[in-house]
Amino acid sequence: MNPIPRHMTSRVERALGTSRVVNVVGPRQSGKTTLVKDLLKTARYLTLDDEGIRAALEADAYGQLQLLSEQARGTGRPVVLDEVQRTPEITFALKRIVDSDQRPGQYVLTGSSNIFSTAKAYDSLAGRVMTVTLRPLSAAEIAHQGPCRLLDVVAEHPRDCRSALPEPQAITRAEAIDLIVRGGYPEIRTLDDHDRMDRYASYLDSIVERDVAPIAEVRKPDTLRRLIDQLAARTAEELNVAALCKALGARKETLNDYIDVLSRLGIVHRLGAWTSSSARREIKAAKLHFLDTGCACAIRGEDSTSFDLSADVAALGHLLETFVFVELEKSLPHLAKHWRLYHWRQRLREIDLVAEAPGKLLALFEVKAAATVVAQDFRHIDWFMTEGPGHSYRCSGFVIYLGDQLLSFGPGRIALPLSMLWSFV
Questions:
Q1: What tens digit of pLDDT does each residue of 338-364 get?
Q2: Range(s) of the domain holding residue 278
Q3: I want to staple 131 with a disulfide (CB 3.0 to 4.6 A). Which of 23, 86, 372, 397 is the partner?
């Protein structure tokens, strides 16, 4: 089976032309190695999963890297070091090599965590390295469409973007749920339900056993594994560490450290709360999102049949909200403006996602697990835009739902079918 083309390939290509070291980071099985091998077919490729190679680098990092650089210099192709997080101590030797030869595109590193942000790294290589984060497949990649440029359209038409949006792809409710349940991990998403759940369980065990150690010392791996289960059950909810402490019988400091480790491994994301004062945004409670709904569903024991008409609407709603967040998050590197994502809540009012760009530009998103939208679904967005903290901003408001019609509900208020997220060419 041919690999699905990745949108981040062009970012890696550009980085190779401007940076001495390109660092491709992403969770295990997200497709990093496949992307790099497909892009750099003739590069010198070494994996630090090989004990002999790892031992040689640990014994004499500078000498080994210098030899690799000399061999690669004549070919004009980079040296690729895969699973580099297993030997973070090589960073100082790498700095010496690329400081003596400032050509761009000398090394490509891949790893499940950012080697330059670990305590064991001897140097950050600031100014010499470009880090590119690869997530699991986006819905647009799965559909062989272009990156989602919804926020680009908002930036160009902040109060009237309806006419600038493409026609949404046709999709049924069942197909949308199947997309959510399967997730984006290339080798896992195509498996049947039983095999997919088994693979995800094995996948998470391997992360706990192999990928955590280079980042932090985990004294209770069983607690970390149970924490993953709890976080999957609470995706799209505000992070309540006290409740997690009670459920797991663990200390607050321990769980905060473990959540930080899972964030750095690309398993979960803490979504900050938006306020009109940027200095206060990290003070309010964050929302916790699992970064792949297929993985979350497998942990929860859910498949497509779990969300029939008699199912818990709230459970599907949370997974759908997480799916929308993840798809928008994956679109950010491909946009013309620099957007940031938040959530917002004030007493009984809540907006699932707030996207902010420079120039006091906001896009507000509510997510609804239903096939119809009514004006009442915009009530929190309406208040936010007219009487609330968004009245001095340029705002566009959207309700993303499981229907198939692109509908306008007045200036700056649009109902978007979920498939809009993969309808750009």
A1: 999 999 998 889 999 999 999 999 999
A2: 140-422
A3: 23
